[in-house]
Amino acid sequence: MGESIQRVFSGSLDVEPGRLSLAQFKKLLLALDLTPASNLLIGQVVQMCKEELDCLHVVHVIQEGMHDASYFDLDSHVQSLLDRAESQLKKLLVSNGLNLSDDKIYLLRGVPAFEIKKLAGRIGADLLIVGSHYKEDDQMRLPGTTTNCVMQGMEANVMAVRI
Prior knowledge:
Rossmann fold; two-stranded antiparallel sheet; about 25% strand; alpha/beta
């Protein structure tokens, strides 16, 4: 694992020195934001989870209200956003060698941190993997807003990958 991996776990892990074993997790949930950095995140996850890819689920959340406007036919606009996001997400997964079944791919609309946590609980994910766009200042590195909100009060283990 590279130094870009930041791990935050709420439980104890059986970890070999220098290697994180993901075999102890039964259901992994990878949250993607579909920015260009998502490709890097998927590549890192594929490297780390080679043996656990059959346990992998993927979610993307379209931000609630971000694209809503009164001058749109909202239903068709939202459907268009969902269709584009679904196409982009599937292309991204396939280009990284992940041929997941449709029942393991979730496309949601709402507040990303809330929807990700809700889905993780609903499917019983025991490890949530998120990319983190770190913000740096002179004193410290801070995880991005969504990553920080996801980690707060999360029941499952969370692995934040700096992208």
